[in-house]
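To start, one record:
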Amino acid sequence: MSRSLLKSMDSEEIPVLSKGAILAQSPANFETIDVLDDGDREIIHYENVHKWSHPWTLYMTVIICSIGAATQLIFVLISVMYAT
């Protein structure tokens, strides 16, 4: 991470990003990473067990945006077909 980006961050964000970087290197071995505390391990375990426990509004947002993107693509393809 660049030093200028680190300087612009709050001091609370840096340890969280460091934990995330260490976890990303070995996600399967999160139980043995000593930087993580018990609360972190509990949250990671919950996320592994309950992969689809997100708010329904998130899923609706993804579905609606996907429909919008598909509609936009169709209109672009139609306009390209008729422009030539």
